[in-house]
Structures are given as structure tokens and as C-alpha cells.
Amino acid sequence: MTYPRGKMEAMNLTRPETTHDVVIIGAGNAGIALAARLRRDDPDLDIAIVSPEGLHTYRPLLSYVGAGLATLRRAQRPQSKQIPAGCTWYRESVVELTPAPVSGEVDATSAHQVHTDAGRRISATDVVVCPGTHIDWDATPGLRQACASPHASTNYEPTMASATWDMLKNLRQGNAVFTISSHNAPCPSVGLKPLFLAADHWRREGRLENITMTVLNENSDFTGLPRANNEIDSRLRRLGVHVRSGITIESIDADSRHVITRDVDGNATHWPYDALHVVPAHRGHDWVADAGIARPETGLIDIDENTLHHRRNDGIWSLGDAAQLGTASSGGGLRRQVPVLSDNLIARRNGQPLAARYDGYSVAPIPIDRRHLILAEWDRQGHEEKTLSFISLARPRMATFAFDLFAQPLIYWHRLLKGK
């Protein structure tokens, strides 16, 4: 692996090696919630968190920022306030991970090495790799240029969420196109949020009949739950939205404002747009691939999807967007992943079997207007996994909309990030 000169010089600085029981790479929802849970489950664990971000973003709220229903300030808080008490925070970026040699047997004494851009080397017998993924701007030619214009945006980039609302609220007529990538995009179905929320705004403003809406979805459907998909399809039909699924988004021509797609037969279609919201392709970090812990075909970390432990490297774990989970990635899914990984990590350190299992639970909250929301919940087999056993939340409800917009952020900051 080749590093820029400045990074090599930083790595060559003389710094003592530090050692911890557990190193968590990443301080998003997954990393902070897991660190807090581990501290609750085993207060004697020496835990370090490695992440350079100074701000912590509650990402589900970005869709509401992009609809004028929330502010970016409400979605972000200082990262220093989220680090659990008793944990060491290295505000540095990982540049290399060197797993301990594969022995073929579980060995709780082998140390993995984490190298940072500050020249620090951190050793640990357990490393949890959860840095998330990042937008792959180069995967779609023209995407970066399009999003630099006032005619395209994405809620997946926090600094662009407000621009999404400026773009959509000011559209008077023309073509509004919404794309959804199939390449590692976290909770891709949230790409429908700006469509439904903007359509309700346009209806209230009397502009809806003058705007043609199109969804270009590289996936075959929108969620893993057929009941929710039927509700969504019905709503899209009532709004007159043109839906194309199972296609490939090849490129974007920012100058002529066209999205170019190709179908399974190889036929290309050019879709004109006056406003474009993109759920972009995502990719894992280069150092993850270099460490040999990812699946080559996806770039996601190759863990046992039930135990969340790596398939080959003892003491390597993962959860969240960076992990190959066998189900749709979602922040809500971490509610089930965090306790499973905590239980199994502690069991391994105590020489016990990995008994906890993650069933693939995932969730997609999709508002169909500015008052009602569908909460789709499913497991790895596509069966509905109800949070409330006595009622299905996959039907549009005012209560779920209010919960998602107002209550869930409070639960996130005050409960989930505390390991509760």
C-alpha cells in the first residue's frame, strides 16, 4: 500500500505502542453504541475508539433536513460528548490494519495491530471494525459534477442535505428524478423519503401536476418486506410516479442534465431532470481491503452474519454498514447487532462459545407524506419482524411519523448511544 509523503512522515514519527483489550474503529452509531454496551456488560474492559470525526451525526434525520422539517444542527452534536466514560478516544484516522496471523484455532492472546495517520500503533486482542462506508463518487461518472450544481443533491452527504431542500422546494415544474443505487448504499429505501415529502409539499403549493416524478431503482424492490413494498407501490401509483427497477445507473451528464441508465437487455435510456436526488453507490475503506478481511466482490467485511465474528480472523468483528450482514443495512438493525456482538466478544474472551445470534433484523422508515409513515421491519428471510407484536407498523400511520421525526432522535442520543 502506498501512502502520500506527508502520511508516511507522520507514520514514521516515534510513538510508543499502546495496548488495549478492545479497539473499536469508527465512532458512528455502531461504534459508540457498542463501546457503551461493552462498558456496561464488562466494566473492566480496556476499550479504545479510533475515529477522526469531531461531529457525530444522527444520519436518519438528514432526510428530514432535506425536506425542510429539521435542521442540520439538530442532527449533529460534538463527538467528544458521545464517547462513553472510561474509553480512550484517538482522534486519528486508520491507515492500516494488520490482523494477527491466522492460526486455525481460537486464540485469545494473539494481538492485532491498528496503525493511524499520527504514526500510532495500537495493539488489541479484539478489534471491531465499524467505520461505515463512504460515497463512491467515481462509481457513477458525472455524479460529482452534477451534485456541484444547484440541480442535483444527496441527503447521504450531511453538508448537502440543506441543498436538497433548496432544490426541491424551489422546483415549479419539470422533471424530478430520484435514483437508488444497489452498491452498498446504507438503507437505500430512504431514497424515497425526499420524493414523498417533496410531493406533499408540491401538492400543498399547487405544483404537483406540473412536475413529472421518476424513480430509477437499481434494486428489484424497495424493502425486504412484501407488505411494505405493496403499500409503497400503491402510493407511487396514486402520485403518478414512473418507476424503473432492476436497471443500472451508468452515468450522469451534468451539462445536459440527463441520467443515463441501461436495462438488462443492454438498452440505454436518457432521463432528463430539473431536480435530481441521488442515493449514491458506497464503498468500504481501502485499508479494509488491504487487510484482507473483506469480501472482494462487495468490499464489505466477511463476518459470520449470525455471530458477527470474522470467518477467518480470530478476534476481528464487525457490524453496521461496513459488514457483510446478509440483509439490508440500517441504523435500526444495530439495535439487534450491538447486544449480539457484545455478548459474543465477552464470551470469546472468557473461553465460552459464541451463543448470541443476529437474525438479520432490518428496518426502513418511509414517510409517504408529511403526516404518515410506513415502518417496514423484516428479518433475513423476509418475514415481518414486529417491534409491537399486536400491530403491523408497515401501514401508514401518523404515530410512526411523529415517532420517527421527534421521539427517535431523543432515544438515539439518550438511550442507544448509551448502550441501552
Automatic annotation (TrEMBL):
SUPFAM superfamilies: FAD/NAD(P)-binding domain. GO terms for molecular function: FAD binding; sulfide:quinone oxidoreductase activity. It comes from the Bacteria. InterPro entries: FAD/NAD-bd_sf, FAD/NAD-binding_dom, Sulphide_quinone_reductase. Pfam families: Pyr_redox_2. Residues 20-143 form the FAD/NAD(P)-binding domain. GO terms for biological process: sulfide oxidation, using sulfide:quinone oxidoreductase. This is Sulfide:quinone oxidoreductase. It comes from Yimella lutea.
